[in-house]
UniProtKB/TrEMBL annotation:
One of its GO terms (cellular component) is membrane. One of its GO terms (molecular function) is GTPase activity. Residues 1-18 form the signal peptide. It comes from Tubulinosema ratisbonensis. Keywords: GTP-binding, Nucleotide-binding, Signal. InterPro entries: P-loop_NTPase, Small_GTP-bd, Small_GTPase, Small_GTPase_Ras-type. The lineage of its organism: Eukaryota, Fungi, Fungi incertae sedis, Microsporidia, Tubulinosematoidea. Transmembrane segments: none annotated. This is Rho-related GTP-binding protein. GO terms for biological process: signal transduction. Coiled coil: none annotated.
Length: 152
């Protein structure tokens, strides 16, 4: 048994990890919920207080089977002043997450004109559309599920 266990450990440890690195960019208007997504996914926390993000990058690594997957995540600013910087980061992104707040019609309606257009013809990227703040739907329904689905 001991010998088999050592052989198994040797085989497991001798497999070289395949390193995969992907850049993820979150885009959307200020207050749309981009930063909250990151906090919930990676720290399991929810911040009720809104603090505007200028540009915040984080790195998260997970090992799945024999693959070491590193996500370089950029939480972009939602203010208009940073359009050119967002465009540059979109060029390098492997995955783009477009975020809008379901309780703010403006964040939904201008998502296309303000941010989708920055992608141009770069169709080789994975793109997600995320409606944030869905927990507020009971209190105020501004953007419906159907509208979000139609935009996607």
């Amino acid at each position: 048994f001991f010998f088999l266990k050592l052989n198994f450990l040797f085989l497991f440890m001798s497999k070289k990890l395949i390193e995969i690195e992907k850049q993820v960019v979150l885009v959307g208007h200020g207050g749309s919920g981009k930063t909250c997504i990151l906090h919930r996914v990676f720290s399991k926390k929810f911040e009720e207080k809104y603090t505007p993000t200028v540009f915040e990058d984080t790195k998260h690594t997970r090992i799945i089977k024999n693959q070491q997957i590193t996500l370089l995540i950029l939480d972009t600013a939602g203010q208009d002043d940073y359009g050119r910087m967002i465009e540059i980061n979109l060029n390098d992104a492997d995955l783009v997450i477009f975020c809008y707040a379901v309780d703010c019609r403006n964040s939904f309606e201008t998502l296309f004109s303000d941010y989708f257009s920055l992608l141009g013809d770069k169709t080789n990227k994975l793109i997600f559309l995320v409606g944030c703040k869905t927990d507020t739907r009971e209190f105020q329904q501004v953007v419906s599920y159907e509208e979000g689905k139609a935009l996607a």
